[in-house]
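Before the break, one more example. Copy the sequence into your notebook; we will annotate it together after we see the structure.
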Amino acid sequence: MSLVSLQPIRDHRPDLRDAANRFDDWLDLHAQSGFIDTRKVVRDLSGDLTSSEIIETLNAIRNLEIAKVGYRIVDNSGTFVSPIFPSVDDVPPVAFDAYGDEFSVERKHIVQIYELCK
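Here is what the structure looks like once it is written out:
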């Protein structure tokens, strides 16, 4: 069972009911991390939902305060190596990869996530 409910989307956006159901299934498998990794959502759900449905559902998740947008740094292997930052402007110019090696943070290292509200 997911840590969050997407029922508010079903209530406020009936046009996204099917997408919310699919997101619920996805969250059951991934919500233990406490955030939605947009890279994984697109990869995992693009076969079932259109890009518009994914974007609209993510927007509804944010607008209905089910989650808030944040940013994390990934290293060159795609592993998260930072805490959640509230804004892109808060992301530091350097970070350390999983092996402790410093690297310059470029745009490709910044991933938008949705931090689930408790």
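The mean pLDDT is 93. The CA atoms of residues 18 and 102 lie 43 Å apart. Try to locate both features in your own notes.
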